[in-house]
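Predict structure. Chain length: 202.
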Amino acid sequence: MLAAGHGRRASNDGGVNKLLARNRDGRRMIDCSVRAVLDSRADTVVVVLGHQAAAVGSALDEARLQAGDRLRIVLCEDHAEGMAASLRTGIATIRETSAAAVAVCLGDMPLLRPQTLDRMITALADAPAAVALAPRHEGRRGNPVLWRRVLFASLLGLTGDQGARSLLRKHAARLIELDVDDAGVLEDFDTAGRLELFASLV
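Prediction complete.
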C-alpha cells in the first residue's frame, strides 16, 4: 500500500495529511484502507511510508498489533520523488518474499471491499497468460492493480510521479480488466472536498 506521498491536492498549504483524516467513527483513512486489505486473503500487507511517516505509522499501531507479521511497515527515503519511488520501495520488499503477484493499493482508497480483492486474486490465478489485472466498475478502470512477479523488475525501473500506467499500456494485450460491483475501486479522497465527504462516512 502506497502511503508515502505529500497529498498536496488535499491542502494548499500542506497542513493537512489526507491519510490522517477521520471518518464519522473517528477512524483514520489509512487505518481504514489497510484494514480492508488485511481483511482480504492477501498473504502479506506492506505499507510504504514517507511524508509524516511517524504520524501515519502511529495511526496503524492497533492494526499492526492485530495483524502481527502479516503487516509490514517500510520507509521510502526518497518519497519526495513521487509515486514511483514509493512503488519501488514496496516492490523491493515484496520481491524478497515468494509472492507470485502483488496488488498495488493506494492509501487514500479506503472503500475497497476485501471481497473485491479476493475476486481479483482468484481471477489472476485462473488466467496464467495474464501478467496484470485491473478492476473495472461501470466501464471505468480502477485500483488496485495486480501485477505478476514477471513484471516486478519493470516496476522497479519506474521513475517520477506517474505510477505504472505506462506498463499497463505496454502490456495491454496481457491485461485482464475484471468487472466488479464495487465503487470503492474508483473512490479516492485526495481533495479538500473529498475529505469533507470522508468525514461523513462510516
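Summary: The longest strand covers residues 132-137.
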